[in-house]
Design goal:
about 400 residues, alpha/beta, Rossmann fold, D-amino Acid Aminotransferase, Chain A, domain 1, seven-stranded mixed beta sheet, 15 helices, about 20% strand
Length: about 400
């Protein structure tokens, strides 16, 4: 009897990491991909691909997942979403989808503790875990009344919402006039009330940004590692990591992360992000990502194969805790090179220092010796995506009223 397979929602480099991890273990992997994100579909470890519309409604997404399970006999397969929006779909319809799939996403009441930053920070304060100074605002009058030290960040409290703020992750605000203008602009976006917040900028770049990555089951951490997000894009408060290193586990990072995961009761893949504030040495909680994260492949190279361990845990199989190898590096070259060039030109990094970070053991986000086709397809896919975006921008400009 064959092993239960995996349906991955998302064909980007996160989906590729999952497909390789499980495919190498002879576990069948199907990948549901969008037109833009399909690098995982070129992997030799992807058994079959199916289209996925990122813009579909939750009801349509639910119906499609049920149809895939029933029409293709995927009942009991492990369902792994890779983005905030996909994970939210699974969490909102947890009971229904659990009739067809084995789930590694927490049900909505737990998932929202991680997804909604307002709730995340409220729980952190209850747990005695430090957070950046944050101002929650709902009206222009509340913004006008603030007395702030600039610069600050303006951000949305949920990564699921698509708008010009979340496209960049945050907006940096340099003075009061810009704050009022940017907040007024934010009010024009389709945002639920109270989902905009203002936050202090903690000094220090990626070297101060630390992560605890884990496979979990009902709040119990089964396997984990700690890492430093040395480079990211943008560098000071990046939307995504470009260069990550596994590190000796800081005791406070491990303790605060495991306590947060236990309090939230999270299941599946979880990454907890902190930044160590050089002003007082404290860790400040930034995010809790209760779904796949971009640099998961570092775990495989470091001896903690997160997708495979998560598959085992979901099926009720034993997960043996394994100490992660320290000093393993991961890079996404297509974003790390331009990020590093900017740092070198600005005098914040030397070429020699950059080249030294490229020494082994080094894991790539796309390239793999046993699976070369995705690397060969990466540049053409990026070129097509950039061309499509340029055409869309031009079309939008021409259709706007004069």
């Amino acid at each position: 009897m064959s092993e239960p397979g995996v349906l991955v929602i998302g064909g980007d480099y996160r989906g590729l990491t999952i497909a390789r991890s499980l495919g190498r273990c002879q576990i069948p992997v199907w990948v549901a991909h969008t037109a833009d994100d399909r690098i995982a579909t070129y992997s030799r470890y992807t058994t079959r691909t199916v289209p996925w519309d990122h813009d579909r409604s939750e009801a349509e997404g639910l119906a499609d997942l049920v149809r895939l399970a029933t029409e293709h006999s995927l009942e009991g397969w492990v369902l792994i979403p890779t983005s905030d929006k996909q994970a939210e779909l699974v969490s909102h319809h947890h009971t229904e989808l659990a009739r067809y799939y084995t789930l590694v996403t927490s049900p909505s009441e737990r998932y929202e503790l991680a997804q909604d930053k307002r709730r995340t920070y409220e729980r952190a304060e209850v747990l005695g875990i430090a957070i950046p100074r944050t101002w929650k605002v709902s009206t222009m009058a509340e913004v006008e009344a603030l007395d702030l030290e600039y610069p600050v960040l303006l951000k949305v409290e949920s990564g699921v919402i698509d708008n010009p703020i979340t496209d960049k992750k945050v907006w940096q605000i340099d003075d009061r006039e810009q704050l009022l203008a940017r907040y007024a602009e934010a009010l024009t976006f389709p945002l639920p009330d109270g989902l905009v917040m203002i936050q202090e900028i903690i000094p220090g770049g990626g070297a101060c940004q630390l992560s605890f990555a884990a496979t979990c089951l009902d709040g119990r951490v089964l396997a984990w590692l700690t890492a430093r997000r040395t480079r990211q894009i943008p560098m000071d408060y990046g939307r995504s990591s470009t260069f990550v290193e596994t590190i000796e586990p800081p005791a406070d990072l491990v303790e605060q992360s495991t306590r947060t995961i236990a309090d939230f009761g999270l299941t599946g893949l979880v990454e907890v992000e902190f930044k160590r504030d050089p002003r007082d040495g404290q860790l400040k909680l930034l995010d809790v990502n209760a779904r796949a994260w971009g640099w998961m492949a570092i775990g495989t190279a470091a001896g903690v194969d997160f997708p495979y361990l998560t598959w085992r845990a979901a099926l009720g199989r034993h997960v043996e805790p394994v100490p992660a190898r320290v000093g393993v590096r991961w890079v996404r070259l297509t974003t790390d090179v331009p990020t590093s060039v900017k740092e070198i030109l600005a005098g914040r990094m030397t070429l020699g220092a950059y080249l030294r970070t490229m020494r082994p053991p080094l894991e790539g986000s796309i390239a793999a010796k046993d699976d070369m086709r995705p690397a060969l397809m990466e540049v053409p896919i990026l070129a097509m995506r950039m061309t499509k975006r340029a055409v869309d921008r031009t079309r939008n400009k021409t259709t706007q009223p004069a």
